[in-house]
Amino acid sequence: MMEKADPSQKLYTRMRLWEFPDQYVVEPTDGSCGSCLEISRMDGSMKLIDEVPECTLVRVPKIQTIFGVIGMLKLLAGSYLLVITERECVGSYFGHPIFKVSSMKYFPCDHSLKNSSAEQKNMEAQFSALLNVAERTPGLYFSYDVNLTLSAQRLHDLGDESKLLPLWRQADPRFLWNNYMMEVMIDNKLDPFLLPVVQGSFHNFQSAIGKDIIDVTLIARRCNRRTGTRMWRRGADSDGFVANF
C-alpha cells in the first residue's frame, strides 16, 4: 500500500540553521508546526527534536536562514550537510513558484576525524576540497509544491494516490540531482525536509499563435545516469543511457 503524505507535513519553505559546537539544528520558520532536525557534528546522525536546545555562554550558536536541505554527503570519514542559502524565483509551473538555487553551503560533520589516522585525514581533506566545486554547481532548480522531474504528460497521468505521496516519492530518480544525498534523510523518514532538486534549465515565456497569446514553459532536466567528463564518457551503455557531461 502506498505511503500517503500527511497534509501537515508539507515541505518547509524557510528554516533557521543553528550551528552549535556539537550539533546543527534546522528549525522550520515558515509558520509550520513541525519538529526541528538535529544533526550531530560528530558523525552526521539525525533525529527530530521538539525545540531548539537552550543556548548558554559556552554554547553560543551561529544562526542563518536557509531555504532547503539538499542532503547529506558521506565521504571517507566524515559527513557533510548541504543546504540552500539563497534562492531566486524564476517563474511558475502549474501555478506553483519555481526557484533557482543561487547559493549553497556545506557544513562538515567530521568531528570523528580526530580519531582517524594521518593518511585518512589527508584523504578526507582532499575529498572535502571538492565540495567547494559542488557549492558552485550551476542550473539547479526546485519547487516546494510540484514535481519537476516529470513531464507535463506524466504529471497528468499520475493517479490520485500517487499525487498524495511526498514529492520525493513521486520523483523520477533519473532526474534527481540530489538523489544520493537524500538517502540518509529518507532512511530517517524526514519527509518535510526532503527537497527534490533537478539540474538543467527553466524558462517561462509568452508566445503568439495567430491571435492567441499562450504561456510556454520549457524545462530541461539532466539525467544522473552515465555522467562523467567528455574524455571518459562516450556513446550509450547497455541500458540505453547516453554519455552525459
Give a short synopsis of this structure.
The protein has 245 residues and is of the alpha+beta class. It contains 6 helices and 11 strands.
Structural summary, described in words:
The protein is an alpha+beta fold and 245 residues long. The chain has one domain (15-203). It contains six helices and eleven strands. Strands 6-7-8-9-10-11 form a six-stranded antiparallel β-sheet. Strands 4-3-2-1-5 form a five-stranded antiparallel β-sheet, with no helix packed on it. The longest helix is centred in the middle third of the chain and has 12 residues, at 118-129. The radius of gyration is 20 Å and the shape is globular.
List the helices and strands and how they pair.
Blueprint: E1 15-19, E2 23-28, E3 36-40, E4 46-49, E5 62-66, E6 68-74, E7 79-93, E8 96-109, H1 118-129, H2 131-135, E9 140-142, H3 152-157, H4 160-163, H5 167-170, H6 183-187, E10 197-209, E11 212-221
Antiparallel strand pairs: 1-2, 1-5, 2-3, 3-4, 6-7, 7-8, 8-9, 9-10, 10-11
Task: Give descriptors for this structure.
245 residues, alpha+beta, 6-stranded antiparallel β-sheet, 5-stranded antiparallel β-sheet, disordered N terminus, Phosphoinositide phosphatase SAC7-like, SAC_dom, phosphatase activity
